[in-house]
Every structure is written in structure tokens, then in C-alpha cells.
Amino acid sequence: MTDFKTSTGNGGETHQQASGDAAVLTTNHGVPVSDNQNSLRSGERGPTLLEDFVLREKIFHFDHERIPERIVHARGSGAHGVFEATDDISDLSKAAVFTKGEKTEVFVRFSTVAGGAGSVDTPRDVRGFAVKFYTREGNWDLVGNNIPVFFIQDAIKFPDLVHAVKMEADRAYPQAGSAHDTFWDWASLMPESTHMLMWAMSDRTLPRSLRMMEGFGVHTFKLVNAEGKASFVKFHWKPRLGIQSTIWDEALKLQAADNDYHRRDLWESIDTGAFPQWDLGIQVFDQAFADAQPYDVLDATKLIPEEVVPVRIIGTMTLNRNVDNFFAETEQVAFLPTNIVPGVDFSNDPLLQGRLFSYLDTQKSRLGTTNFHQIPVNAPRCPMHNFQRDGMMQTQVPKGRANYEPNSLAAHGEEGGPRESQAGFATVNAATGPNEQGDKLRIRAETFADHFSQARLFYRSQDAHEQAHIASSFVFELSKVGVLEQVPPRMVANLRNVDEDLAKRVADGLGIDLPEKAKAAREPVDMAPSDALSIHKNMKSTLEGRSVGILIADGTDAAELDAVIKAVEAEKARAIIVAPKVGGAKLSDGTMRKADGQLAGSPSQIFDAVAIILSDAGCKMLLKEAAAVQFAMDAFGHLKAIGASAAAKPLLDKAGAEPDAGVTDLGKAFIAAAKHRFYDREPNVRMLA
Length: 689
Ligand code: HDD
What we know:
Bound molecules: CIS-heme D hydroxychlorin gamma-spirolactone
Cofactor: heme
Radius of gyration: 29 Å
Low-confidence stretches: 1-17
Number of domains: 4
Helix content: 25-40%
Shape: globular
Distance between the termini: 74 Å
CATH class of the largest domain: Mainly Beta
EC number: 1.11.1.6
CATH superfamily of the largest domain: Catalase core domain
GO biological process, one term: response to oxidative stress
Mean pLDDT: 95
CATH architecture of the largest domain: Beta Barrel
Family: Belongs to the catalase family. HPII subfamily.
Number of helices: 21
Largest sheet: 10 strands, antiparallel
């Protein structure tokens, strides 16, 4: 009989040697396994035996490895961290998590919305921003997005929204994108989605990094202090690295360059100790303020401009630990808007109210058991006691007879179990909003009727480049609408209520006549523009947390290369060397310099700025390499800084990278330029709507 264990080198002995002192391989039930290469057969070439419990268990478990993916937000990346409260807000909230100086463990999961778990990281899409705070008073989940408003006002529309945006029901495409018939059919028939559409068509949905986007709790919530006094609140996450987005052409090309662009970026930052941080901010207001606004604060399609109610920073979150296992943690984490702690409370926002129902169902369906709270990533870090018992996959072993209350077991010397506490969560009992009490009505409040004023506010708060991006996104997306010819004009008819110029640009871009203006449920009003809504007006002049790609080839000047690397690293950015061969290039001083990435697999879209350091001979060689020409062409087209050695000029010329403020030599000017994008360049490189 042939012994594959020895003759192939794949056998148990060889494995043990390779893994040193590794633990002994066992079955799930602890039985040591002697052969993990061959199943048990009846004769050397005979059929496999039913008796082979090792094979059966291994394949059985493998066959059941997958659980249902999330219906939305299926693709995500998670990390552990800590939240530290930095301000005293005890006058507003009694929550322990907000006690000044308190440190609370957190788990965060960022996600795209529409695509499946294996889809790409950089489609035009909203990003989920869900934070689980393991507070000493129980878990608090702030399950938000990177956009402060939502598509719909009432949770009853959520299944329609999700069905419309996900891949179409019969053909199962497109994956992870809204540019298709059914989404725009639905959206053009839902005027209340217009405000969120403005955000979705802006560069907010093209974040450069998960570390460089804002987060929002979206709904109005309540803070409750020790006296039971409630205030309204909206939650904001502000990234320490500033907000930065890519542009559409870059995001498209990133899909080809690196499917895992955001996941990798998050992992590598944490892995290398560049811990991402966000400040938590609150906008606090009262009923009198709410009543005085021209919109309803319970309407999730509305925001409160920061210029009207400033954001007060109350703490900082630092993500400092990658997960040990993606499935066990990032996939199994279960967020519930109903996870709330004393000191915070819900509002009557009808979207939030619907969410309070939905998430519990989802977790049971995804994780298969009502005991999903026992999975380590979901379990509270504080003690947890109640009389809930049994159920599938019960992993705890409650002791004694106390599985009911009231009981008098203690009188008999037995464990009686937990008791209610006055300090426990108590719903705020005050008139806190319109329709707090009243008749049962299947109705939308009249105060929810204005669908366009804030869409206009958003559009008019953007700078000219951002407005051009929004108009162009509408054109791109609506151009992808196929047979439903009525849809683009219907959408443009809605946009006329937002801004006539925007509607005209979109109609022109589509090559259609300007349709009649859609009748608005309520005429929009002009609100004072809010600079806080613009990315460009808030971008940080920094290289921190970013990366510079440095293209080199044989003959590159060693001193010039080292100077650029040093200058980039001094700014807390990463210098990544790209060369035609990953083994590296032979520099001017005769030394070999290893590359971090091979040119063909490291296009310039994965960097924030590029340096091209070539000798005459190196440049001559790269003029014949399309990937090198494309490297410069895309960096220029994506409005990035390009620092180049004098000898690299022919490559820039071939790439059409004309001299401008962002095209510099390799000195200080390059580092200064690399902190910015050159949006003024854009009209020279592409026609925008
Ligand atoms: Fe939701 C997941 C955010 C409205 C129903 N939602 C989910 C996640 C985020 C959000 C970040 C992913 C959590 C994770 O990483 O595991 N959802 C929002 C925001 C909304 C919103 C900011 C509006 C302000 N969602 C919303 C409504 C409903 C749902 C109105 C249903 C009535 N959401 C779900 C869900 C999901 C979910 C189906 C899928 C996976 C999950 O819950 O755990 O229950």
C-alpha cells in the first residue's frame, strides 16, 4: 500500500515537524486525529466508509460554514477600540459612558449598503458606521451612517428602498450600485428621498478611507439626566484625519486596482499603530427649538445645520485592535438600535421606531438563535442576569431553581436571582414631540411634507467643483437607466424644486428637454447655506494617514529617493515604492532598492499623491510601458500632486500631465502640494455636467 504520508511529504509527521510544538489536531469532540490527508476506504481504491467520523464531521462542518449575509450592509470591516468621554455632560445625561474620563470598550463595523459580502469596497454607496459601546450599564449601539439623513421618513418604506437599490430581482445585477432602472424608478417616485439623493450623488459616497469619513446617528434621540430631564440630541462622529473623498473616475478604477481598498487600509493603519480616531459630538436642543424649525426634527430626511446648533465634542474614539477572526467578530457582530442605556432614549422618529423592531428579527435570522447575545463580540462586558432561559445554542449554565420572579427562594437559603433597580432604564415620560399621544392614525404628519428645502440647502452649500460632481453623478446614474424612459425626466422634474441650474445641467448632460417642474407637496424655502455640509470647505491640509506612491526604475537617484521618503514619513504618511519589478531597481549608487509594489499592480489611484523619480535611461524605458504612462495620467486626472525629477518630464508629457500648481519638482513644494487635491485642474481633464 502506498503511504502518502511519507511519499508526498503532506502527511501528519511532516506537518508536525513544520509546525513545531503545535497542539494535537482533534475532532470537535476532542478525539486526536492521526491522519488528516486520507479518508477511510474499503480497500486501497474502494469506496469511502460511513464509519469515517473524522471525514463526516469535517465535511459536515464545512458544509454549514456560511450564515445568511446581512440583507443590507453585507460587506463590512470591523475593529476594536476604546471610547473616552472628555467632557462633563452630567447636566444632560446620566449615562456612565459619558462620565468624564470614563473609558469604554467599543467594536465598530463600517460597511457599504447595497453590495453582497464579497463585493468591492469603493462603489458609489452610503457607508454604515455602527458602534457598539460595551458600557458598564450594558451595551449601547449607535447604528449610524456616514450621511446625516436618510432616504425615507417611515420604516414601512425600507423594504421597497432596499429591493429597488439592490441587484434587480430577475437578472441579479448590478451588484453594489444604484445606477440602474429600479432604483431610479423608485427614487424618482419618492420626493422625500431627494435630500439624501443629493448626498448620495456627492463625493460623500466615495470616501478615500473609512478613517476619513464622518459618522452620524441620523435620528433625533434623547439625552436624559439624573433628574429625568430630557433633551433632544443628534450624534456626530468627526474624523481626526479630516474628511477626504476620491472622485468618481478614481473610485471606478479603484474597483479594479483593489477590491479591498478600504478594508486593507483600515487593517494596515491599525496594524502599524496609526490608530484611527473620531471625536464624538452632540447637537443638543429642546422642544421650543424643535417647534420653531420649518421642518420636523422627527423626520430623518432632515438635518440641523451645525451653524444653527453647533456640534459640541464630548469624547474620542480610538480604534486600536484588529479582529482576531473575521467571521467570529465582524460577521457575527449584531447591532441593535434597541441596545440603549439609562441616560439615552429614543425619539418618536417613525424611521427609528421601525428600526427598533427590525434588527432583533434580523439577528435571529442571521445567527440562528435567540442566544446570539452570548457570542463573545455581542456579549455585554458588565454582569448580565435575568430569567430568560434555554433556547438553541444556550452556552451558559444557570444554576439553581430561580427561573421566575417574584420568588421567595432566598427565604429558604436558595439563590433568588436578580431584582429590578430604580436606576435601570426608564423611558422618558414627558411630552417630547408632536403626536406623542393621540389617535391611531396611518398618516404622515403635515410637518414632514417639505421634501426639497434641505436638498437645496445641501446643494447650495457646496463649492462649484462639488456642485459639478453632483450634477455629473446624476447624469451618470440616470444614463444607466435603460428601458424606463419616463424615469430620467421624472427625476429632473423633481430636481427643478431643488435648484433650477442643477436640473438644467442634468437635463443637458442627459440630452433631454427640461421637463415640467414636479408639483411639490410643500413649496421649498431657502435656508442659509451651511459650510459644514461641504467636504472641500472642511478639508485638512495634511498628509497624515495618507500615502505617496513613488515610481522608480533602474538608474533612479538614490539621494533624491531617500529625501522624498524622509520628507513623506516626517508628515506621518506612508511612502510606497513602485517599480517595474517587485524585486526592485538598481539605483544610481549601484544599490538595489526593493519595491513595495509592482508597477502593473500598483496604479496611482491607490495613492494620495505620487512622486516619479527617474533617470534619463529609466524614463526612456518607461515611455514604452503603458502602466507607467497611465500612472502619471491617472494621478493627473484624479487631481493629485505629482512631484517629478527633471528626467521624468518626457513621461509626464506623454501622459498629458501639463504644468500646474500640483505638478512640482521633488523638493518642499511637492510635500506642500501632496496635502491637497487640485480641483481647479478638473475642467482641463474632463467634461463635467
Ligand atoms: Fe439599518 C443594518 C444603518 C434604517 C434594517 N443598518 C444596518 C447597518 C447599519 C445600518 C450601519 C449595519 C450594521 C452592521 O454593521 O452590522 N439603517 C441604518 C441607518 C438607518 C437605517 C443609519 C436610517 C437612519 N435599517 C433601517 C430601517 C430598517 C433597517 C428603516 C428596517 C425597518 N438595517 C436593517 C436590518 C440590518 C440593518 C435589515 C441588516 C443587518 C442587520 O440589520 O444587522 O435589520
